[in-house]
Amino acid sequence: MFLDQLRASVDAAATLGDISTLERTIWQTAWPDHIDDATAGELSELLHAKRKLLQAAPPRLVGFTKARPERITGPKKAAAIERRRRLAACWPLPPKLAGHFTLSEQAALRVVADDLKRHGICTKFVAQIAAIAGTCRTVVKNALRKARALRLLTVEERRRRGQRSLTNVVKFLCRSWRQWILPKRGGVIFPTTTHNRFISNGASTVVEKIGRGFSGVEIARSVPRSPP
């Protein structure tokens, strides 16, 4: 029933504001509890095609109003802020490179880095990365643009003539960042933090497990003792 209503809303979307609202509904509310990745990707592609048509059409001067983006407030906003702070604190970049990015951009790059670590490439939708990182599409685009300018990664666009474009393919380019994310055997392992599902307060379940894995005795042993 919910999926049918969502599809009907996608078919009825007629303005850029409707499309932006539905994208947030798909990636922040419906996915992954109510719809799977394939369905969310299909609906997102339909909305992307509608956005292209609306942007290509000449604007109507009579009664034309600029769409105002919907702002997230309340518990969802607090959960998104906490989630992106946690992701940004999970070492997505070496210190000398982290200074070029804001906290929200680092959280988005952490999501990209997780996919690069698992699969060697990242093919997620921009809206999907934004939903996982607890930020917006503009921040994700800015993060990828800066990373591309700094030659940290490559972004391959997959346009298809007469068909919907596929998602961009992001790959490693900087060797130092690759070694930071993919250390050698026996080095420090940076655990992935985005399993496409978060607990109710916005925290990553994997981050919570890592925190519980360190006992007080191990932390005490790791602290160097001062000489007598």
Q: What are the salient characteristics of this protein?
A:
228 residues; mainly alpha; Arc Repressor Mutant, subunit A; 2 domains; two-stranded antiparallel sheet; globular
Description:
- The structure is a single chain.
- This protein has 228 residues and is mainly alpha-helical.
- The protein folds into 2 domains: 55 residues, no CATH class; 143 residues, Orthogonal Bundle (Arc Repressor Mutant, subunit A), CATH 1.10.10.
- The protein has 11 helices and 2 strands, in the order ααααααααββααα.
- It has a two-stranded antiparallel sheet.
- Strand 1 and strand 2 form a beta hairpin.
- Helix 2 packs antiparallel against helix 3, helix 2 crosses helix 7 and helix 7 crosses helix 8.
- It is globular.
- The chain starts with a helix and ends in a 6-residue tail after the last helix.
- About 18% of the residues have low confidence.
